[in-house]
Amino acid sequence: MTISKKTGLEIAFLVMSAFIIMTAVSASSPIYPLNVWDDVNVYFTVGRGVFEGQVPYMDLYEQKGPIFLLMYAVASLISKTSFTGVWLFECIAASVFAIFSWKTVKLFVPKAPAVCIGLVPVLMGITYTIGMFNFGGNTEEFCFPLLSVVLYVALKMIKEEKVLPGVKDSLVCGLIAGMLFWTKYTFLGFILGFILILIVRAVRNKAYKLLLKDILYFIAGFAVVSLPVFIYFGANHALGYLWEAYFYNNIFNYIGGGSYPGLLGNPVVRFLAVPVMALAESCMSNLDYCVLMILSLVGVVVFEKKYRKSVITLFLVTFAISLKAVFSQPFYTYYYGYILSFYFVFALILVVKGIEKLIKKRSYNKRLIQLVLGALCAVITLCSMFMCKNTYLMFVPKEELSQYVLADIINQTEDPKILTYDIIDGGFYLASGVSPSNRFFTTMNFIENNEEAVEEQERLIAEGYFDYIVTYSDEYEWDNYELIAEDIDPYCDFTKVPYLDRHCLYRRISD
SS3 sequence, 387-449? Predict the structure, then answer.
């Protein structure tokens, strides 16, 4: 398949925009000293361990899926001492989001004014500075671009008035489903909803042979991703650890406690209400997210009449299942709703259609309107980038960060063993260049529900196994450890409210 010169230029523009935006907003990029998000540092530490002979879950405990950890492992091959590799993957993911968002727009606005492509960087600039993005590098950020591809497949099927998407598209969807399943299986809501719609369409049109072909190709794509996972963990005698950490503990131990008042005490009401309440909380906490969600909903409701019924059905079914899958746990986590960002393409279509009508209506000012819109797109994109809450870290020398201040002390000991105790690894393993020496090398969400993790850490501390322990608190009184240093850094998390973050370093008392 040949690509026209115009399409090639559009792709080049979108990829360049993605790289520029991610360089400015992601703390993984080379203009930042370190991505200080604790979660992503755990992923990097586990990923780095893969090529040092350590097996995820068995040797280094984590809760995210193996495909995601493999990506971090590959990123560590690019650079073991920085997040440069992660930044490159972020740029690729953002490029996929940009390209397929624009392809989706052109499905329904084929004669969109050329200036409208400038709205894609605007969408990226806003989407990648929502508080849910935090410092960058989490599963949601990498996976919603994949879902934008599946959404494109679904909408292309509707636009071309096909009963089913076809075997090539089914293969692609199977590959993506495999990647999502082995990254974070709660992301499969959209695909499950899409499959349900396809089954209904096939039955109504008695297209059973086509459905069977699509199913086989979908399974083939899923298998291509899944078989290497089983082979790797099987060869390392770690399938049991994979099941325990990625499935069992996430389903049965990764829960929040507490009772529910009033109607929420009813399991049925709670089943239906919690996802809606979580989405509402996501919108109330992130005005930009809320605006894009509302515009997307409007875009679906006022969709082109010929396709409106099919598009509304697709949206309602997939959104409802996605919402329940994403917010499946009985507690709110601020970044869970970020995976739904691929739906923002409906807002993009809405705005592009509006601009197309505006330019047609005022044809005598077409050139001026395009110039003004182009300038406006550039200004909004730049403003969104430089309003990113991560800019406080931009160009800061890494030597000023607590991770490197404490690493200088840690590295005075030959082959040191360290533990991040009441803190999720915030980059201390990376800064010191030390690999973990025990399975539960850091704290984790709801660690109190994992007796094995608590027992291992407490036992090894009592034995004086670690040379150093990094904590938030200076109030621990261990018999064989003493507080020797502490450092304070400015910090700005998803709330976008800056505060000071303290890290303490304990050293084992010499005999």
Answer: CCHHHHHCCCCHHHCHHHHHHHHHCCCCCCCEEECCCCCCCHHHHHCCCCCCCCCECCCCHHH
Q: Are 371 and 461 contained in the same domain?
A: no
Nearest to 283 by CA among 301, 299, 297: 297
Same domain, 378 and 411: no
The answer on 307 and 175 residing in a single domain is yes
* pLDDT digit string, tens, across residues 107-157: 999 999 889 999 999 999 999 999 999 999 999 999 999 999 999 999 999
pTM to 2 decimal places: 0.95
pLDDT over 50 (residue 257):
no
Q: Look at residues 368, 392, 416 and tell me which one is the last residue of a structural domain.
A: 392
Both 312 and 375 in a single domain?
yes
The answer to whether residue 255 scores a pLDDT higher than 90 is no
Higher per-residue pLDDT: 510 or 491: 491
CA distance 191 to 177: 7
* Structural domain that includes position 407: 398-508
**Given this model, what pLDDT does residue 450 score?**
79
**End position of a domain, from candidates 337, 364, 392:** 392
Q: What is the pLDDT of residues 210-235, one digit of tens each?
A: 999 999 999 999 999 999 999 999 99
Domain tally for the chain? 2
